[in-house]
């Protein structure tokens, strides 16, 4: 499929999902306010840590924390539920009978939540930068973190949805990522405060590269080579989740 029809299909799917999203006002609670409440609570938790002793600046740290939280709650968990719900409603099956490719169908369905997450991350990052007086120093690294995080979360959502039998099972299926991923990726607890062997091992966690790139956007701590390594790690995890989704994703309800 050429790029023009693909973009047209993406726009159509975006408008459909945006309309459906706005019909249920409770969506704003789960996608907007809940992550922000978690962010505020994590601000309190991180205030109890001796960040200065570990050479950590709270401004960049909170930006990376916010980005990680929003990617998980506003994008990953929402898109996982979206894929399963649309599969159960036979929407995905009907879309496959048209011209749109599988990748366009999945990306188009997720595009609305991508837009919401990007707006949230940008607004929160600007607000935190103003609060802490921490101006961005390496915007290319922050942009790389945003892109790798979005692609990774969508791929992980598709892989998780492939393992869900019903819409009711989404909450259980996403629990490992919601609870474990922030703990091991430096979102809740910076890796610098952990023992060095543990911190080195957790560098390879799925979302750690994205968190590191976001923080480097405000600290400039990563060189080009280190940034490339982070992007490569994120790409490997993304490829793994894409492989799982390609093998296991179902386009119609499970019997």
Automatic annotation (TrEMBL):
Membrane topology category: Multi-pass membrane protein
Domain ABC-2 type transporter transmembrane: 10-216
Transmembrane segments: 20-41, 61-84, 104-133, 139-163, 170-189, 228-246
Keyword field: Membrane, Transmembrane, Transmembrane helix
Pfam family, one: ABC2_membrane
Keyword Transmembrane helix annotated: yes
Subcellular location: Membrane
Lineage top rank: taxon: Bacteria
Name recorded for this polypeptide: ABC transporter permease
